[in-house]
Amino acid sequence: MKFKGVIFDLDGVICFTDKFHYQAWKKLADRLGIEFDEKINDRLRGVSRMASLEIILEKSARAYSDAEKESFAAEKNDAYRALLENMGKSDVSEEVRDTLSELRARGVLLAIGSSSRNTPLILEKTGMKQYFDAVSDGNNITRSKPDPEVFLKAAQFLNLAPADCLVVEDAVAGIDAGFSGGFRTAAIGEATNYDRPDYKLTTFSDLLKIVD
Ligand code: BG6
Ligand code: MG
């Protein structure tokens, strides 16, 4: 078996919460009169909440105090969680569910490796917790992607070596994190435009051809 485990990013891979992140940041940026578009948003993929805010504030005409930044991050998170409230089982595609079930049936261990501190809420809302043998997220790390910490912890939770695991990512920062942690990587979505991933997925179920 080429891979004993697969570690999935959450936002933009398992479900499309990346669009909610965008909407919530956009709301804050508009209120502050700061330019923000999809191109800037792509730089936020995989990056922690505070690091994302710093990227958005690069376009700000004025500087903000740490206390103001804390309150902006909380404001964004409130808007984001309000959007998550409406999520349900139908926010994860049949294709994703079927692929995960098939990988499990093949005896492959599955984990989440996400920078998001909202991971538990999203897994609960979408009813996806049962598919994963381990969850490593923003609540158990001190360094966000592109640091490999979140994936190294996920591999540890699975009791597997990084060399035995595939990391699936939609973010350039996540592909870099996987690479520097000694994992092989598969890109989906935005990250397929990057030249570093070992594999590029046209569609999620392509994983079944890679992980056999
Ligand atoms: C990542 C997203 O999964 O989680 C980032 O790609 C986000 O856009 C990060 O900033 C942190 O998320 P949260 O939910 O802890 O604010
Ligand atoms: Mg992502």
TrEMBL record:
Cofactor: record remark: Binds 2 magnesium ions per subunit.
Positions of the record's site feature: Important for catalytic activity and assists the phosphoryl transfer reaction to Asp8 by balancing charge and orienting the reacting groups: 114, 145
Q: Quote the CDD domains the UniProt record gives.
A: HAD_BPGM
Q: Which GO terms describe its molecular function?
A: beta-phosphoglucomutase activity; magnesium ion binding
The EC number(s) given in the record are 5.4.2.6
Q: Which reaction does it catalyse?
A: beta-D-glucose 1-phosphate = beta-D-glucose 6-phosphate
Q: Where does Mg(2+) bind?
A: 9, 11, 169-170
Question: In the UniProt entry, which residues are flagged as the active site?
Answer: 9, 11
Give residues annotated as binding substrate.
Answer: 9-11, 25, 44-49, 52, 76, 114-118, 145
The cofactors named for this UniProt entry are: Mg(2+)
Question: Per the record's keyword annotation, is Ligase included, yes or no?
Answer: no
> What are the record keywords, sorted?
Carbohydrate metabolism, Isomerase, Magnesium, Metal-binding, Phosphoprotein
Entry keyword Isomerase: yes
Any one GO BP annotation for this protein: carbohydrate metabolic process
NCBIfam families listed in its UniProt record? bPGM, HAD-SF-IA-v3, PGMB-YQAB-SF
Family, as annotated: Belongs to the HAD-like hydrolase superfamily. CbbY/CbbZ/Gph/YieH family.
Q: What is this protein called?
A: Beta-phosphoglucomutase
Originating organism? Candidatus Borkfalkia ceftriaxoniphila
